[in-house]
């Protein structure tokens, strides 16, 4: 082959090769595997209910059909239809949350280590944003029908900035996205993270650390 042809062939092989994409959860090896959530065995996921015991009800759930309770300091109700609440999702790499926000409500900064999130605003006006590993904030004001995608593991928040209630449904490409809530993780851990670590990390006096801890200790 002439050099120019081999160079083109080399470039084309990169363009045409299937990208080594990896979904958040590993692919299932069977049609379904309704999770036995309380099984004695511990695996990466859950063991399957015997197919002979599976019914249509295993593939349906009303867990996010009802408004969440927003009577709390954040004016926030998060209801999770993950594999724990909806075992039919086991091994399928998908789940959904319902986020209810009373006026002024905030879903405070947190991250999901195991899934990318796609929010759809059903009601209200919300500000949603995430911060990259380079500390760049991407945020937008969204209204009914708008989508916003939050890349896996990045810290993000949702805030109701409208006059009425807000309702968001969040889809995840994982059956159990997990949640790292920034404030409770740092200020409400058991046993507590020593004050000296947090006072240095945040460059404040330990009294400030104690005050924040008092709000997140369980
Ligand atoms: C909502 O949560 C608050 C605070 O935990 C509780 O007092 C109240 O009973 C709950 N309301 C309902 C309808 O469950």
TrEMBL record:
Gene Ontology biological process terms, A to Z: plasmodesmata-mediated intercellular transport; regulation of root development
Location(s) in or outside the cell: Secreted, Extracellular space, Apoplast
InterPro entries: Cupin_1 (IPR006045), Germin (IPR001929), RmlC-like_jellyroll (IPR014710), RmlC_Cupin_sf (IPR011051)
Keyword Signal found: yes
SS bond partners: 33-48
GO CC terms in record: apoplast; plasmodesma
Positions annotated to bind oxalate: 97, 107, 112
Keyword hit for Transcription regulation: no
Family annotation (SMART domains): Cupin_1
A GO MF label: manganese ion binding
Signal peptide: 1-26
Lineage: superkingdom: Eukaryota
List of residues binding Mn(2+): 110, 112, 156
Domain Cupin type-1 residue range list: 66-210
Alphabetical UniProt keywords: Apoplast, Disulfide bond, Manganese, Metal-binding, Secreted, Signal
Family the UniProt entry places it in: Belongs to the germin family.
Full protein name: Germin-like protein
Species in which this protein is naturally found: Nepenthes gracilis
